[in-house]
Fold this sequence. Notes:
Elements (H helix, E strand, L loop, with lengths): L5 H7 L10 H26 L3 E6 L2 E6 L2 H10 L1 H12 L4 E6 L9 H4 L49 H12 L8 E5 L5 H15 L5 E5 H13 L3 H9 L3 E5 L8 H16 L3 E6 L11 H7 L3 E5 L4 H15 L6 H10 L4 H18 L5 H7 L1 H7 L5 H12 L3 H5 L5 H17 L4 H7 L5 H17 L1 H15 L1
Parallel strand pairs: 2-3, 4-7, 4-8, 5-6, 6-7
Antiparallel strand pairs: 1-2
Helix pairs in contact: 2-4, 6-7, 8-9, 12-13, 12-14, 17-19, 19-21, 20-21, 21-22
Amino acid sequence: MASETHRLGGIQKDAVNPSMMTPLQDAWQRIRAKLRTEFGDATFDSWLKPLGVLRAEGSKVLITVPTRFMCDWVKTHYLGRIIDYWRQETGAAIDVELVVSVQAPTTPGPAAVAPPPAARPNGRPARADGQGEDPEGAAADTYSAPLDPRFTFDSFVVGKSNELAHAAARRVASSAKVQFNPLFLYGGVGLGKTHLMHAIAAEIRARDPERKVLYMSAEKFMYQFIRALRYKDTMAFKEQFRSVDVLMIDDVQFIANKDSTQEEFFHTFNAVIDQHRQVIISGDRSPSDLEGIEDRIKSRLGWGLVADVHPTDYELRVGILQSKLEAMGRDDMPNEVTEFLARKIVSNVRELEGALNRVTAYSDLVGRPVTLEMTQEVLQDLIRSNDRRVSIAEIQRHVAEYFNVRLSDLLSARRARAVARPRQVAMYLAKQLTSRSLPEIGRKFGGRDHTTVMHAVRRIEELRETDSSLDQDIENLRRTLET
Ligand code: ADP
Ligand code: MG
């Protein structure tokens, strides 16, 4: 190393002032800036900032990487781009070789310009949940991520789709004895897995502050692990896990295809389970369906209780909205708006909450009470993406059938009352149940003008007030169309 750094090193010693940098370092600084722009601060700080330029050897540039693991990672993920940039810089067919060495970036040279990695080990963006926080020289107890105080059992609304996961979570949280190990919770995004994990952790801590609960995302696990490797601090890292009573790892799918992290995760997992301590894991699919995870890990993950969280149904969505409204202290939300949201935002709970927040924030902002119209307006984009289910063609078909008229008549120019009324109903339902605009609806009804559609919608709204049998018809139609 000493002799290797000699050539550049001699210059670097005096290169405190960036303007005195060698062309090589100079180019490297520009490349670093491009890499940061391309990959973003978080990635750059974690993976690229610790790299240092060592020297040139013919047409090859040697770049140092602090650990073997990072070397592999950088090689598979970023080396191609690094080479591209070197070629751009020099206009020559430069090749780049990565050299594992802890030394380079902390010696003067590039480090004189950019702070050494140790100066700010945490390059990840701060997240609202504080999971990105990683204070300097992380003391032992900072390994666990902070819990979101809103994610409790009290605020979790139970329905058919999540009752098993909820019951299992409750059981684990309330019992000091290990019942099933691990508990594996899985399901699609935004369905409450993290909420349940936090609720379990909070409950256990509240019941017995002595029990040591360690909760972190798999992503954070990997980050901490790599950091520990980089700063040669793996002892403390491992020690943390080995002394916990409850180990919780969220979103385990994140470690798919990340071999060394999986390896470490597996050791950690086994060590905790072997000591009969509780392990709780979440993932986006069942253990056997996890891709990019070693078979022996998948199999072990499925040893305990596997509980899935299904997509929500309508009743649960209404329940969740009501509970959120209560928590927000809002009792001014018309039922038709709550029902509309529960019918329309079906993708996941996070989006449902987002929709509710958007509507209430908008109403506060403009100082007007929430109405159905306002909701439709404010949530146009969301509704569109959740809306794939009912099409105008389907509405037309159902309406024609219901009123016993021919579909072709419904779309024709015929004005006979027997056809005109069902047509208006179909237009009204198209407006209510899809996010199509009035002109779009008009086009689908034999190329009618948007004012015709508007008139139809108004007319039916009026009639629903006075004609209870028509009102019932529409309600029936709506129900069949939406299920
Ligand atoms: P996941 O981890 O499964 O992606 P989260 O736990 O982050 O989903 O849930 C997303 C949002 O939806 C959170 O704000 C959470 O509080 C809320 N949420 C999900 N399910 C429920 C539920 N059954 N009751 C109340 N809130 C829920
Ligand atoms: Mg989650």
